[in-house]
Each structure stands twice: as structure tokens, then as C-alpha cells.
């Protein structure tokens, strides 16, 4: 059976709708808990797919979170082997750093719903299903990254130019959150209560926008990821 390792940094930022896609295609899903499980014992090239999920820490906070160095080494080896890899939010930042790019605090927090604008290359890739004409997108980050050498920019938002890129044949990085499901986002609102309050975000308003926009994103996110995953075999 094919295996997917999903590296998770906080429990409520899981695979969401992407879990249904991998399981429907016969993958065995294994969550690896960063900061708890020993990332040093993982074979970086063994799983058929690796997905690195989001979290509230920065790639540059290795002194406070020593596991970050292990995670970066794991990604460096996997990307060098051109094995299928997806990064979401913090995962995308980890991928960028593993590829030699700088990761750093951005000028503003990007929290909530806003559409993506795709590049011409993005419109010819599976991420075209995430275009702002089709769906809004959930954003939840304050860091950003330089585009790694050799990477192709796929999407931007009004606040951040680098929202999605591909690298090599089998690597996809997404600063945004196309994996989220409406039913799970209440956990985000609870878990990030302090951050939302600090940034003056109205939880009732965010909840109302989620009820309106998340079902479409859930559908489009599944389509996008399924097309990308199916393309690995061609």
C-alpha cells in the first residue's frame, strides 16, 4: 500500500479535505507529530507522498524549537531526491528554506478570506482550480519567503506575492490553506483566539464568512489536490 506522511505541528491543522483525496486513491495516511515524534528516524524518501502542514511558529525559530532543524534536513533530502512533496503554510515556508530561500516576517498579518490571483503558469497547473474567479481562499500567516532558485511562482494575493510555487517535477508549496473544511475551522478560531484578538479580527464576522465561503473552497481544494496527485503518475 502507498503511504503518505503528514507532518503536523498543531492538532487542529490537519489534512482536512485532502485526507479524503489520498485515502480514496489507496494511500495509508500516517500523521507525524512534529516536536513529539523523532523526525530524525524517518526515511525521507520512503513514503510515496509527504505533506508538511501549517503551524504558528516561524522557520527561523530553531533556537526555541530544535525539531525545526531536523524537519529542514528531512525536507532537504526529500526534495533533492525529487520525491512528491506538498507544503501548506508553515510547510511551504519550510520547503522554501530547505531549498535555500530566505523566510522572514512579512509586513502585515494575513488572516481570513481573500482570493488568489494566478500567474499564467498557475493557470496551466492544478492550482487553476483555486483561482479567485472560482473560490476565495483562507489565509493565516504573518511570515513570507523569497522564491527559491528554480521555482515557478503560481499564485499571489493582494498582500503577499509568493502564495504558491512549484519546484522540480513533484514539489508544490502553498502559503495559503486550500485544505480547510468548514466543519473544522471552529477549532482554528478557538486555538488562535489570542492571535485573532491581538489583530482585531472579529470572530463572528470570520465565522460568517467561513459559512459562506468554505464549502466552495472545500470543493475546489479537493479538485486541485486530486488533479495534482493524479498527475504524479504521468
Mean model confidence by pLDDT = 97
**Structural class by sheet pairing and helices:** alpha/beta
| Order of secondary-structure elements | EHEEHEHEEEEEEHHH
State which percent range the strand residues make up: 15-25%
Please explain how this structure is put together.
- With 234 residues, the chain is an alpha/beta fold.
- It has one domain (2-231): Rossmann fold.
- The protein is 31% helix and 25% strand.
- The protein has 6 helices and 10 strands; from the N terminus they run βαββαβαββββββααα.
- Strand 9 and strand 10 (171-174) form a beta hairpin.
- It starts with a strand and ends with a helix.
- The mean pLDDT is 97.
What's the short version?
Helices cover 31% and strands 25% of the residues.
List the helices and strands and how they pair.
Layout: E1 2-8, H1 18-24, E2 27-33, E3 49-52, H2 67-80, E4 85-88, H3 90-98, E5 103-114, E6 117-118, E7 137-145, E8 152-156, E9 164-167, E10 171-174, H4 185-191, H5 193-198, H6 203-231
Parallel strand pairs: 1-2, 1-3, 3-4, 4-10
Antiparallel strand pairs: 5-7, 6-8, 8-9, 9-10
Helix pairs in contact: 1-6, 2-3
Amino acid at each position: 500500500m502507498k503511504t503518505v506522511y503528514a507532518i503536523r505541528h498543531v492538532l487542529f491543522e490537519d489534512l482536512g479535505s485532502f485526507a479524503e483525496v489520498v485515502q480514496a486513491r489507496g494511500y495509508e495516511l500516517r500523521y507525524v507529530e512534529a516536536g513529539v515524534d523523532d523526525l530524525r528516524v524517518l526515511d525521507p524518501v520512503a513514503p510515496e507522498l509527504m505533506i508538511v502542514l501549517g503551524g504558528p511558529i516561524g522557520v527561523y525559530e530553531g533556537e526555541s524549537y530544535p525539531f525545526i532543524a531536523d524537519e529542514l534536513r528531512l525536507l532537504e533530502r526529500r526534495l533533492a531526491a525529487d520525491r512528491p512533496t506538498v507544503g501548506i503554510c508553515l510547510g511551504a515556508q519550510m520547503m522554501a528554506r530547505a531549498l535555500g530561500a530566505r523566510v522572514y516576517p512579512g509586513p502585515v498579518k494575513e488572516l481570513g478570506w481573500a482570493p488568489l490571483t494566478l500567474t499564467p503558469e498557475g493557470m496551466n497547473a492544478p492550482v487553476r482550480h483555486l483561482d479567485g474567479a472560482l473560490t476565495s481562499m483562507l489565509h493565516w500567516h504573518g511570515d513570507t519567503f523569497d522564491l527559491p532558485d528554480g521555482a515557478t511562482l503560481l499564485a499571489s494575493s493582494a498582500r503577499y506575492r509568493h502564495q504558491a510555487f512549484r519546484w522540480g517535477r513533484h514539489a508544490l508549496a502553498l502559503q495559503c490553506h486550500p485544505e480547510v473544511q468548514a466543519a473544522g475551522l471552529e477549532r482554528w478560531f478557538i486555538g488562535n483566539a489570542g492571535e485573532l484578538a491581538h489583530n482585531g479580527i472579529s470572530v463572528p464576522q470570520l465565522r460568517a464568512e467561513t459559512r459562506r465561503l468554505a464549502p466552495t473552497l472545500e470543493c475546489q481544494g479537493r479538485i486541485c489536490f486530486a488533479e495534482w496527485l493524479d498527475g504524479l503518475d504521468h
